[in-house]
């Protein structure tokens, strides 16, 4: 089975891309020789076959990562050296940004401009942020024991980390996990989504070119039920970090607990509310909410998928949002103008359409969208959709759709909308649009979510922590909190005068 294939990439012609396993800085076949297939979401046609890593391949990768952790990485390398390598890695991604963006677009269905400028750009920013943070972490000195003893703490890397990333932001979720792990001194066994493994594999050659030692980043394409489960249960992996669905997050938590009780961080689903008060700037709020729900075609854990509008401006706001839906730049991923591409798969498209039909049957009003795009031509598009006049008991209000569908209803008072916003098992994000500063502060404190946007939506930064309340996750990514997630604290007691 070959470890590379040649594909046609718009604007780049024929490009050779990796399809094998990356272990110990070398491309290798899976021991079983098995492969799995991917599909181009814009055409519905076969895309690439990739090597399928099994339990034996995970063992190989873990041994490589453990060896690297004990010899050429971890506590054996100055943080400044790790920082320099991360910066060089980021420089190489920036050098190849146009090609990487084109590959990300082809594999995931994103508009090529969005993939290049946002996904690739934000990934570079994340690596550079953690390069800068690598030598800024420190412990405490506890010198309040008189002359008896001196105590200090060390922040040390956890060790070998399994990382399992989703298909909606294949490159950016890779950077969010690899950046802090390497900055902290951990080594990585990476499993990209079986739907979008391409760019995580492309990163491997750049890591090697940057000078990152063998075993520091091993990458294993494969299925969740095999490769992902083997990583979660492996007895020599010290931590697993996962972004994806609540159902899979629960399985990973169980597998981690049943094996070596490895540490777990989870960034899971969301059903994030956007709250629009009468005092809000309607046009601005509609623009922010539109981006929040239709960016990445609604395939976003923080999507502004629940909309609550104060009754005085309800009809005006719904009309404004409908105009934003009709203005979405829906089109082919290879078109520079496209900002709204297909959903990732046929199954995901059909799931979203079934949710829309469920909302319609339960009494929701379809304001716009609600169907396949008429120019889909075999691809997996669903039009930007607004379901208005929804009620709290509807399936589309309670469950995460993970598509370009927003559900809207009206409210009267602050107290009522706080109750509505928190009436969910999720707690990832929320937004509030109001010109009343006291109201902003009150709702920011009252809503159960890990991120609150006030008079904006969806803007993230590598320096700002991100994660969820309730079933939306455990732990935080990004910021200094993201680095701490790959460290463990050791307390050292140095005896000065105590005797037994």
TrEMBL record:
Protease among keywords: no
Gene Ontology terms, MF aspect: oxidoreductase activity, acting on the aldehyde or oxo group of donors, NAD or NADP as acceptor
InterPro entries: Ald_DH/histidinol_DH, Ald_DH_C, Ald_DH_CS_GLU, Ald_DH_N, Aldehyde_DH_dom
The UniProt record lists the keyword Oxidoreductase: yes
Keywords for this protein: Oxidoreductase
Domain of life (superkingdom): Eukaryota
Stated name of the protein: Aldehyde dehydrogenase (NAD+)
Source organism: Kwoniella dejecticola CBS 10117
């Amino acid at each position: 089975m070959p470890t590379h294939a040649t594909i046609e990439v718009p604007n780049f012609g024929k490009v050779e891309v990796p399809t094998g396993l990356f272990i110990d800085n070398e491309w290798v076949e899976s021991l079983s020789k098995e492969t799995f297939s991917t599909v181009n979401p814009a055409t519905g046609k076969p895309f690439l076959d990739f090597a399928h890593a099994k339990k034996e391949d995970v063992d190989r990768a873990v041994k490589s990562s453990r060896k690297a952790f004990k010899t050429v990485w971890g506590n054996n390398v100055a943080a400044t050296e790790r920082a320099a390598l991360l910066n060089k890695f980021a420089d190489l991604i920036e050098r190849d940004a146009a090609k990487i963006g084109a590959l990300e677009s082809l594999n995931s269905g994103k508009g090529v401009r969005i993939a290049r400028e946002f996904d690739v750009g934000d990934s570079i920013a994340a690596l550079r942020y953690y390069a800068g943070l690598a030598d800024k972490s420190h412990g405490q000195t506890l010198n309040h024991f008189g002359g008896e003893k001196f105590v200090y703490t060390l922040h040390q890397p956890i060790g070998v980390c399994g990382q399992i990333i989703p298909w909606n932001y294949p490159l950016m979720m890779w950077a969010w996990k690899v950046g802090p792990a390497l900055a902290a001194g951990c080594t990585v066994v990476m499993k990209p989504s079986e739907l979008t493994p391409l760019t995580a594999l492309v990163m491997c050659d750049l890591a090697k070119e940057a000078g990152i030692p063998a075993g520091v980043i091993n990458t294993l394409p494969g299925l969740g039920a095999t490769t992902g489960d083997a990583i979660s249960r492996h007895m020599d992996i010290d931590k697993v970090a996962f972004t994806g669905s609540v159902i899979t997050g629960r399985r990973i938590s169980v597998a981690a607990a049943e094996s070596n009780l490895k540490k777990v961080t989870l960034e899971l689903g969301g059903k994030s509310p956007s709250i629009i008060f009468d005092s809000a700037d309607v046009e601005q709020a509609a623009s922010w909410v539109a981006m929040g729900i239709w960016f990445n075609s609604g395939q976003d854990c923080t999507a502004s998928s629940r909309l609550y509008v104060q009754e005085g401006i309800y009809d005006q706001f719904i009309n404004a949002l409908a105009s934003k839906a009709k203005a979405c730049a829906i089109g082919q991923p290879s078109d520079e103008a496209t900002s709204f591409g297909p959903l990732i798969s046929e199954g995901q498209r059909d799931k979203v359409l079934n949710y829309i039909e469920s909302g319609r049957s339960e009494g929701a009003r379809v304001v716009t969208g609600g169907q396949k795009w008429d120019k889909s031509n075999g691809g997996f598009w669903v039009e930007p959709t607004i379901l208005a006049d929804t009620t709290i008991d509807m399936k589309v209000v309670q469950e995460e759709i993970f598509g370009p569908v927003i559900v809207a209803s009206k409210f009267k008072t602050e107290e009522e909308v706080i109750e509505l916003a928190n009436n969910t098992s999720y707690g990832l994000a929320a937004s509030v649009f109001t010109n009343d500063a006291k109201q902003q502060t009150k709702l920011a404190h009252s809503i159960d979510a890990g991120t609150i946007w006030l008079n904006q939506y969806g803007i993230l930064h590598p320096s700002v922590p991100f994660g969820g309340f309730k079933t939306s996750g455990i732990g935080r990514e990004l910021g200094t909190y993201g680095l701490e997630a790959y460290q463990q604290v050791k307390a050292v007691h140095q005896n000065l005068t105590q005797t037994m």
